[in-house]
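Human
Can I borrow your eye for a moment on a structure tokenisation matter? Give me a protein, with the fold worked out from its sequence. Write it directly below this note and I will take it from there.

Assistant
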Amino acid sequence: VQVNGKLRAKVTLPRDAKSVLDDLADVAVDPVSGLILLLSEESRRIAVMHLSHDGLRLMQSHDLPLEEGERPEGLAFLSASRLAVVTDGPARLLTFRVTRRAAARV
């Protein structure tokens, strides 16, 4: 991670995340929760990660509903509740409604 052009920390993927992601094509940060979404072109999957002082932790992963030969190339939040994934072969823009679990109350 770089801050003001200086390397501050090096974060590696945990083993469980590597098992669900064959590669890394893109990254986005959830504007509400701060969770990190990693997109894998080869796995055709999104992994949801939590970053803390202990490093990255895999929270969940989601297989993308893609057609045969379709490859996810990028992702971005369009709003707090809409996630877009762009694909190649054929080129499409897919949008997904983002749902979040309610925070536990103490």
User: Anything to note?
Assistant: The mean pLDDT is 89.
